[in-house]
Amino acid sequence: MNRLFVSACCVFLISACGLHKQSQTSESTNQPAQAAAKESPTKPATNSGELQPGQASGTYTAKGEVVELKYSYAGRAQRFGTDSLVVLVTDKPIPPEALAEEIKSATLLEGEKIRGLEYVFDDNGMWVRYHPSQYQESSSNKLKEYKVENGIVRGIDDNAGNLSDGKYARSVKFVATIAK
User: Fold this and answer.
1) pLDDT tens-place string over residues 87-117
2) Are the C-beta atoms of 138 and 105 separated by less than 8 Å?
3) Are 138 and 127 in contact (CB under 8 A)?
4) How far is CA 170 from the centre of its chain?
C-alpha cells in the first residue's frame, strides 16, 4: 500500500512540476522580445548574416585596452596612391555629414573623437590600422570572410595578434553600405 501511495505522490509531483513549467513558458512568451533575448543564454552569437548594414559586432584590443565596436561604414577613397575600398568599424556613430570626409581622410579617428579599425582593401590585399594607437598591419590575404555584393560589404576578421605578441588583436564582424 505504501508503494502505491509513494508512486501516486511521485506522479502527482511530476505532473504538477510539468504544469508549473508550462505556465512559466507561456508567460515568458508574452514578454517583449528584448526581455526574452536577455533570458536566453543559449542564443547564438551574431554573425555577419544577422547584422544590418551599418552595424558591427566584436572588439579589438590595443595595448591591453578592449574597445567594443558597433558601427560600420564603407566607401571608396585613395590610399597609398591606389583606389581602395575603405571600411571603418567604430565604437561610436559617424555623423552623416562627416562620413565622406571620414572615408577620405579618417579625421575623427585620427583626432581621437572616435575609436575603431580602418580597413583598406585593394588589388594588393588588405591593410588595417587601429585608432587611436595607429598600429598597422598589412596582408596579401583578405579577411576570414569577405564579400562585396550589391553595394554592401560584409566581413569577418579574427586576428589573435600573433604579429604583435597579443598587444593588438581583433575579432570583428561588419556589414556596411558603400557610400557613393
Assistant:
1) 999 999 999 999 999 999 999 999 999 999 9
2) no
3) yes
4) 11
* Domain layout of the chain by residue ranges: 2-39, 55-179
Q: 70 with 173: CB under 8 angstroms? A: no
Specify the pTM: 0.71
First vs last Cα of the chain: how many Å apart? Answer: 83
CA pair distance 50, 176, nearest whole angstrom:
13
d(CA 168, CA 180): 31
- Least Cα distance to 175 among 46, 52, 45, 44 occurs for 52
> How many alpha carbons lie under 13 Å from residue 108 in its C-beta half-sphere?
22
Rounded CA gap, 69 and 94, in Å?
A: 12
C-alpha to C-alpha distance for 155 and 147, rounded to whole angstroms: 6
Say if residues 69 and 173 touch (Cβ distance below 8 Å).
no
C-alpha cell at 16: 504538477
Reported as a single tens digit per residue, the pLDDT across 130-148 is 999 999 998 887 788 999 9
**Is the backbone peptide bond immediately before 32 cis, with ω within 30 degrees of 0?**
no
The helix (run of H) or strand (run of E) holding residue 110 is helix 107-110
